[in-house]
Specification:
The chain has 187 residues and is an all-beta fold. The chain is 0% helix and 47% strand. The chain has one domain. A hairpin with a 5-residue loop joins strand 1 and strand 2.
Length: 187
Amino acid sequence: MATFTWYLQGSTPTTIGATDKLQFANGVFNGKITVGEYNDSTHVKSSTGEDLSASNNPNNVKFISQSGGGGGASQADWGDGTEDLDDMENAEATLKINFSDEASVITEDAVFYAYDGTTPATPPTDITIVAAEVGDTNFTEIAGSGSPLEIADQSASTSHNYYIAVSASPDAVGAKAGKVRFELTYS
Protein backbone atom coordinates (compact mmCIF):
# COMPACT_ATOMS: atom_id res chain seq x y z
CA MET A 1 0.00 0.00 0.00
CA ALA A 2 1.33 3.44 -0.95
CA THR A 3 1.68 5.92 1.93
CA PHE A 4 2.89 9.48 2.47
CA THR A 5 4.46 10.64 5.73
CA TRP A 6 5.22 14.34 6.25
CA TYR A 7 7.84 15.66 8.68
CA LEU A 8 8.87 19.11 9.87
CA GLN A 9 12.61 18.63 10.13
CA GLY A 10 14.65 19.72 13.14
CA SER A 11 16.97 18.21 15.74
CA THR A 12 14.50 15.34 15.55
CA PRO A 13 11.70 15.30 12.97
CA THR A 14 8.12 16.11 13.96
CA THR A 15 5.55 13.99 12.13
CA ILE A 16 2.75 16.10 10.69
CA GLY A 17 -0.47 14.17 11.23
CA ALA A 18 -3.64 14.39 9.15
CA THR A 19 -5.31 16.88 11.52
CA ASP A 20 -2.15 18.89 12.34
CA LYS A 21 -1.24 22.25 10.80
CA LEU A 22 2.07 23.54 9.53
CA GLN A 23 2.31 26.97 11.18
CA PHE A 24 4.51 29.81 9.96
CA ALA A 25 5.16 32.38 12.70
CA ASN A 26 7.21 35.47 13.61
CA GLY A 27 9.73 33.61 15.75
CA VAL A 28 7.45 32.28 18.48
CA PHE A 29 4.63 29.75 18.33
CA ASN A 30 1.36 31.49 17.35
CA GLY A 31 3.29 34.74 16.70
CA LYS A 32 1.86 36.87 13.90
CA ILE A 33 4.01 37.70 10.87
CA THR A 34 4.03 41.35 9.74
CA VAL A 35 2.57 42.00 6.28
CA GLY A 36 5.34 41.79 3.69
CA GLU A 37 7.70 39.87 6.00
CA TYR A 38 8.46 36.15 5.89
CA ASN A 39 8.34 33.57 8.69
CA ASP A 40 11.02 33.55 11.39
CA SER A 41 9.85 30.17 12.72
CA THR A 42 7.90 27.12 11.60
CA HIS A 43 5.89 24.80 13.88
CA VAL A 44 3.53 21.83 13.88
CA LYS A 45 0.27 22.82 15.56
CA SER A 46 -2.09 20.08 16.75
CA SER A 47 -5.85 20.19 16.22
CA THR A 48 -6.11 21.15 19.92
CA GLY A 49 -3.68 24.07 19.56
CA GLU A 50 -0.54 22.47 21.04
CA ASP A 51 2.97 23.08 19.60
CA LEU A 52 3.97 19.51 18.73
CA SER A 53 7.42 20.59 17.50
CA ALA A 54 8.47 22.63 20.57
CA SER A 55 11.08 20.15 21.78
CA ASN A 56 12.46 19.33 18.32
CA ASN A 57 14.17 22.65 17.43
CA PRO A 58 12.24 22.78 14.13
CA ASN A 59 13.91 23.93 10.92
CA ASN A 60 12.83 27.28 9.55
CA VAL A 61 13.65 28.57 6.10
CA LYS A 62 13.06 32.30 5.65
CA PHE A 63 12.87 33.65 2.09
CA ILE A 64 15.25 36.62 1.60
CA SER A 65 15.40 37.34 -2.16
CA GLN A 66 14.44 35.71 -5.44
CA SER A 67 17.64 36.45 -7.37
CA GLY A 68 20.14 38.30 -5.13
CA GLY A 69 22.59 35.43 -4.74
CA GLY A 70 25.52 34.22 -6.80
CA GLY A 71 24.57 33.62 -10.44
CA GLY A 72 21.05 34.93 -9.76
CA ALA A 73 20.24 32.27 -7.13
CA SER A 74 17.50 32.84 -4.60
CA GLN A 75 18.62 33.55 -1.05
CA ALA A 76 17.22 32.34 2.25
CA ASP A 77 18.16 32.11 5.91
CA TRP A 78 17.89 28.64 7.45
CA GLY A 79 19.71 29.45 10.66
CA ASP A 80 23.18 30.50 9.50
CA GLY A 81 22.37 33.92 8.02
CA THR A 82 21.66 34.66 4.36
CA GLU A 83 22.86 31.94 1.98
CA ASP A 84 22.28 31.00 -1.65
CA LEU A 85 19.40 28.53 -1.92
CA ASP A 86 21.42 25.99 -3.89
CA ASP A 87 23.79 25.63 -0.88
CA MET A 88 21.01 24.06 1.23
CA GLU A 89 21.45 20.43 2.28
CA ASN A 90 18.65 17.88 2.80
CA ALA A 91 18.77 18.12 6.61
CA GLU A 92 18.32 21.93 6.44
CA ALA A 93 15.04 21.92 4.47
CA THR A 94 11.73 22.68 6.15
CA LEU A 95 9.93 19.51 5.11
CA LYS A 96 10.81 15.90 4.45
CA ILE A 97 8.02 14.08 2.65
CA ASN A 98 8.36 10.31 2.41
CA PHE A 99 6.46 8.27 -0.14
CA SER A 100 6.68 4.51 0.34
CA ASP A 101 5.16 1.47 -1.30
CA GLU A 102 5.41 -2.29 -0.72
CA ALA A 103 6.81 -2.71 -4.24
CA SER A 104 9.83 -0.95 -5.70
CA VAL A 105 8.41 1.88 -7.84
CA ILE A 106 9.66 4.86 -9.81
CA THR A 107 8.08 8.25 -9.13
CA GLU A 108 7.36 10.84 -11.80
CA ASP A 109 5.61 14.17 -12.34
CA ALA A 110 5.66 15.09 -8.64
CA VAL A 111 4.39 18.58 -7.75
CA PHE A 112 3.96 20.58 -4.54
CA TYR A 113 1.62 23.57 -4.30
CA ALA A 114 -0.51 25.69 -1.98
CA TYR A 115 -4.22 26.21 -2.47
CA ASP A 116 -7.25 27.68 -0.68
CA GLY A 117 -8.11 24.36 0.97
CA THR A 118 -11.13 23.73 -1.24
CA THR A 119 -10.23 24.02 -4.92
CA PRO A 120 -6.72 22.92 -5.94
CA ALA A 121 -6.50 25.51 -8.75
CA THR A 122 -7.29 28.41 -6.38
CA PRO A 123 -4.33 29.88 -4.48
CA PRO A 124 -4.64 30.82 -0.80
CA THR A 125 -6.03 34.33 -0.27
CA ASP A 126 -3.71 37.19 0.73
CA ILE A 127 -0.61 35.06 1.34
CA THR A 128 2.53 34.46 -0.71
CA ILE A 129 4.07 31.01 -0.30
CA VAL A 130 7.35 30.07 -1.94
CA ALA A 131 8.98 26.66 -2.07
CA ALA A 132 12.04 24.91 -3.49
CA GLU A 133 13.30 21.36 -3.65
CA VAL A 134 16.80 20.98 -2.19
CA GLY A 135 19.20 21.52 -5.09
CA ASP A 136 17.03 24.13 -6.81
CA THR A 137 18.60 27.49 -7.64
CA ASN A 138 15.43 29.56 -7.23
CA PHE A 139 12.18 29.52 -5.28
CA THR A 140 8.82 28.98 -6.99
CA GLU A 141 5.70 30.84 -5.84
CA ILE A 142 3.31 27.92 -5.29
CA ALA A 143 -0.04 29.58 -6.00
CA GLY A 144 -2.54 26.83 -6.83
CA SER A 145 -2.19 23.72 -8.98
CA GLY A 146 -1.43 25.87 -12.04
CA SER A 147 1.76 27.18 -10.38
CA PRO A 148 3.36 24.20 -8.61
CA LEU A 149 6.90 23.45 -7.56
CA GLU A 150 7.98 20.66 -9.92
CA ILE A 151 9.83 17.88 -8.10
CA ALA A 152 12.55 15.68 -9.65
CA ASP A 153 11.65 12.13 -10.70
CA GLN A 154 13.15 9.32 -8.60
CA SER A 155 14.33 5.87 -9.67
CA ALA A 156 12.91 2.56 -8.45
CA SER A 157 12.76 2.11 -4.67
CA THR A 158 10.30 1.17 -1.93
CA SER A 159 10.97 4.52 -0.15
CA HIS A 160 11.33 7.99 -1.68
CA ASN A 161 12.31 11.11 0.31
CA TYR A 162 11.63 14.64 -0.90
CA TYR A 163 13.23 17.65 0.83
CA ILE A 164 11.38 20.94 0.42
CA ALA A 165 12.08 24.44 1.72
CA VAL A 166 8.91 26.49 2.34
CA SER A 167 8.44 30.12 3.39
CA ALA A 168 5.31 32.27 3.73
CA SER A 169 4.39 35.96 3.92
CA PRO A 170 1.00 37.59 4.50
CA ASP A 171 -0.11 40.11 1.86
CA ALA A 172 -2.77 41.70 4.12
CA VAL A 173 -3.61 41.81 7.83
CA GLY A 174 -5.72 39.09 9.46
CA ALA A 175 -5.53 35.34 9.92
CA LYS A 176 -4.47 33.37 6.85
CA ALA A 177 -5.27 29.79 5.93
CA GLY A 178 -4.70 27.38 3.11
CA LYS A 179 -3.35 23.94 2.44
CA VAL A 180 -0.34 22.48 0.69
CA ARG A 181 -0.53 19.43 -1.49
CA PHE A 182 2.01 16.93 -2.84
CA GLU A 183 1.08 14.82 -5.86
CA LEU A 184 2.98 12.26 -7.92
CA THR A 185 2.51 9.31 -10.24
CA TYR A 186 4.30 6.02 -9.73
CA SER A 187 4.77 2.72 -11.52
